From TrEMBL:
The keyword Cytoplasm applies. Transmembrane segments: none annotated. This is DNA polymerase IV. Its main location: cytoplasm. Belongs to the DNA polymerase type-Y family. Binds 2 magnesium ions per subunit. It comes from the Bacteria. Gene3D superfamilies: 3.30.70.270, 3.40.1170.60, 5' to 3' exonuclease, C-terminal subdomain (1.10.150.20), DNA polymerase, Y-family, little finger domain (3.30.1490.100). It holds the Pfam family IMS_HHH.
Length: 430
């Protein structure tokens, strides 16, 4: 019988990747099992508001041809009895915190990479058993305590742990060692290697590299000539090598963004500016909540034909102020978009973030005396919204000339579009 020490390499690492299966749908099943368990379900936005894209779907729905990214109308044609559920991010965050709390009990070295997955370095966790025993315990506890299924990958590094967790879904538990890579991975196409997307795979095919095995055995010089330093990483990854650590304390957010798909295409200046003001207010609030400031502002524009452009401007001094963010967002829009062209989606993203205490916020030479008053007012507004909700305090610019109509000519009440700005939040933590 093997001892526990034999499972743990003397100089190597043991990494788990815990990946929740169909997480959003699973949360709804856990909350209302009688209503959803075992049935074809999908989480999607509002079809009426043109956000009818399948975010995720249950395995019962997948077996009937439904897939992530599919239009709701298309999914309903494939599966007429599909149950479409609106997203509930409060519930998702609650369950995310709960499953990570369970995982954290087995090692303090945990890296959450998204709301539904995390890496665990269990090299120093022998007291809990072998890697397979620890993975099994975590998987069973998450299911017994939260009614959520998950897959777990066990490997000597993050790359292979991630790939292992994808191999046997749902409820899989897979071990992938470096010595297993040639047999298990080398015959697969390059885009099945985690970190290589479709475009990179297309470029690899152009230099006659079609499989992970061919990539693993290719000339490094050829790869660096085509891909630069990325070529070195790809060859190492194809051989199952990865030295990236599990980061216990994640870096501060590198960006904070907010986008909204508009109920109707807009092009009028006052309508666009009103949307940008709402977006700027949302991201500024989240920025202040994190006690950070932004050094750059980026806007995102998507046209009715789904073309997307982004434009960014680096600020002369960092800011946390809604007015500064809104002003720069409007300036970017004015400079890079024509007022006779409609837009379907708008977004504002804050880049180059840094802790507020480490920054020097520039004060206006003529208005510096008003800065403490503005800051106090902003804090008061944030407190009111934290307590009573986003709509507790609205500026005149958010409401427009007619407070009952937020976007002119489109019959959208102020509160409804304000709610729609939860369409997509993005915090890039990688």
């Amino acid at each position: 019988m093997r001892t526990i020490d034999e499972y743990y390499p003397a100089k190597g690492r043991v990494i788990l990747h815990v990946d929740m299966n169909a997480f959003y749908c699973s949360v709804h099943e856990a909350e209302e099992p009688d209503k959803y368990r075992g049935k074809p379900t999908a989480v999607a936005g509002s079809v009426e508001l043109r956000k009818g894209i399948i975010v995720t779907c249950s395995y019962a729905a997948r077996r009937l041809g439904v897939s992530t990214g599919m239009l709701v109308n298309q999914a309903l044609k494939k599966c007429p009895n599909l149950i479409v559920i609106p997203p509930d991010f409060t519930a998702y965050r609650k369950y995310s915190n709960a499953f990570m709390k369970i995982a954290y009990e087995y090692t303090p070295c945990m890296e959450a990479t998204s709301i539904d997955e995390c890496y665990l370095d269990i090299t120093g966790s022998k007291q809990f058993g072998t890697p397979q025993e620890i993975a099994t315990i975590i998987q069973k506890r998450i299911y017994m305590e939260l009614s959520l299924p998950c897959s777990v990958g066990i490997a000597p590094n993050k790359l292979l742990a991630k790939m292992a967790s994808d191999m046997n879904k749902p409820n899989g538990l897979t071990v992938l060692r470096i010595r297993d890579v040639p047999k298990i991975l080398w015959d697969k196409p390059c885009d099945q290697l985690f970190g290589i997307g479709g475009r990179t795979a297309d470029k690899l095919r152009k230099i006659n590299i079609h499989t992970i095995g061919q990539l693993a055995n290719s000339e490094e010089m050829l790869l660096t000539q085509t891909f630069g330093v990325l070529g070195v990483w790809m060859k190492q990854a194809a051989n199952g090598l990865d030295q990236s650590p599990v980061l216990e304390n994640r870096e501060q957010s590198k960006s904070i963004g907010h986008t909204t798909t508009l109920p109707s295409d807009i092009y009028l200046k006052e309508d666009v500016h009103r949307v940008l003001l709402n977006l700027s207010d949302q991201v500024a609030r989240r920025l202040r909540r994190k006690q950070m400031v932004a050094g750059a502002i980026q806007i995102t524009i998507r046209t009715p034909d789904m073309k997307t452009i982004t434009r960014m401007h680096t600020l002369s001094a960092p800011t946390e102020n809604t007015e500064d963010i809104y002003s720069k967002a409007c300036q970017l829009y004015n400079e890079h978009w024509s007022w006779d062209k409609s837009v379907r989606l708008l977004g504002v993203t804050l880049q180059q973030l840094m802790p507020k205490e480490d920054s020097a916020i520039q004060l206006d030479l003529f208005n510096y005396e008003q800065h403490p008053k503005k800051e106090s007012l902003t804090k008061a507004m944030d407190l009111l919204r934290n307590k009573y909700g986003e709509n507790a305090v609205l500026t005149a610019g958010m409401l427009g000339d007619d407070p009952s109509v937020l976007i002119r000519n489109h019959k959208i009440r102020g509160t409804s579009l304000q709610m729609d700005f939860r369409d997509k939040e993005d915090e890039n933590l990688s």
